[in-house]
Design goal:
Pfam families: Complex1_49kDa (PF00346). By secondary structure, this protein is of the alpha+beta class.
């Protein structure tokens, strides 16, 4: 329908003649789509992510995640660093899961070398991986309500994170990028009395975790904003390669720690609980994350118990001055806090990898937005986006 123009003449009290012009577009306004950019800097994008939305009124018609703003070429840089140095590159893409990121790389290299890691290192790695899982989840447990207007939980989350950060910092010297994994084990043994302090920190955090049940899950506004919103089907989970708590919230009962055990998880089957939901909505994803945090604290306690029973022994393997992996290829994958991370390592027998391909959890998880957002209201976009629990560095690598 073409625009219409209407002219009307009026006269003021002083006798001056005025002409008013009205331009109308008729029914065309109702069928005009609007393109809206969310980001690349936006409070709910957890980094430099851009969403290109096509709207029909308040309803999202099409959604396209635009990524690459943080790309730093880590996979290419792997090819120019030796097997000791690549650990530094690996722990930075998901800055909330640095220890777990390091772990996947060293597991791939050790598998290529056919190397057996000391028992003490295996159990300590498992402990630190679970503490890192709690640190990751606490950030999202606090920041997700914040994105929906609830400011209080994030302060509690940082209080609990600080207790665990302290014990992680004590052993490694780092608060985010621990650099504690080494090919063949860990950098060094635990400091004297560290396990006692770690156990106290775990107990302290557990004693206050009920705040999320009461303050967040018990909040009717939070439940109203998340229940039935952003439902991700089990079929979509498989189609997009979604993993981790997001997949399990849609009824996909899969966890590498149970289904393909690595480290000491095979011996923790009686403690490990794979949390699932069937609803697949924002609320189910938050509930999975919260329950998984409780279970990670239980796993950390079980690891501390086992470490206390172990005799003194080495924490790593002695390595040659120049470390070379034999020619061949291997694939290692781990159940990272945000989902499955995979590491495909190709070696030509040199001291640097020929190729190290990283499959990061956030990259696949964020693709589901193209399925989740169409048909939703713009007001629900932030609730859906925040419930995918992603880190943009993990998308862009």
């Amino acid at each position: 329908m073409s625009p219409t123009t209407e002219h009307r003449k009026t006269r003021t009290a002083a006798g001056t003649e005025l002409t008013e012009t009205t331009v109308g577009v008729g029914g065309a306004a109702e069928s005009t789509d609007m393109v809206l950019n969310i980001g690349p800097q936006h409070p709910s994008t957890h980094g430099v992510l851009r969403l290109r939305l096509v709207l029909d009124g308040e309803r999202i018609q099409h959604a396209e995640p635009v990524i690459g703003y943080m790309h730093r070429g880590a996979e290419k840089l792997f090819e120019a660093r030796d097997y000791r140095q690549i650990v530094m590159l690996a722990n930075r893409h998901d800055w909330l899961s640095a220890f777990s990121n390091e772990l996947g790389v060293v597991l791939a290299v050790e598998r290529m070398l056919g190397m057996e890691v000391p028992t003490r290192a295996v159990w300590t790695r498992t402990l630190l991986a679970e503490l890192n899982r709690v640190l990751n989840h606490l950030m999202f447990l606090g920041s997700y309500p914040l994105e929906l207007g609830g400011i209080t939980p994030v302060f509690y989350a940082f209080r609990e994170r600080e207790e665990l950060q302290n014990v992680m910092e004590e052993i490694s010297g780092g608060r985010m990028h621990y650099m504690f994994n080494r090919v063949g084990g860990l950098k060094e043994d635990l400091p004297a009395g560290w396990t006692t302090r770690a156990r106290a920190a775990v107990a302290s955090v557990r004693s206050r975790m009920d705040v999320y049940d009461r303050l967040v899950l018990g909040n009717e506004i939070f439940r109203g904003r998340t229940r039935g919103v952003g439902v991700l089907s089990e079929e979509a989970v498989h189609a997009y390669g979604v993993s981790g708590p997001i997949a399990r919230a849609s009824g996909v009962d899969f966890d590498l720690r149970r289904d393909e055990p690595y480290l000491a998880y095979g011996e923790l089957a009686d403690v490990l609980k794979v949390v699932t939901r069937e609803e697949g909505d924002c609320l189910a994803r938050f509930e999975c994350l919260l329950e998984q945090t409780h279970n990670a604290l239980d796993l950390a306690d079980a690891c501390l118990d086992r470490i206390a029973e172990l005799p003194q022994g080495p924490i790593n393997q002695r390595l040659p001055k120049v470390l070379k992996a034999p020619e061949g290829h291997t694939y290692a994958w781990t159940e990272n806090p945000l989902g499955i991370n995979g590491y495909y390592l190709v070696s030509k027998g040199e001291k640097t990898p020929y190729r190290l391909k990283l499959r990061s959890a956030s990259y696949n998880n964020i693709q589901a937005l193209t399925e989740l957002l169409p048909g939703q209201l713009v007001a629900d976009m932030v609730a859906i986006l925040g419930s995918l629990f992603f880190v943009v560095g993990d998308i862009d690598k």
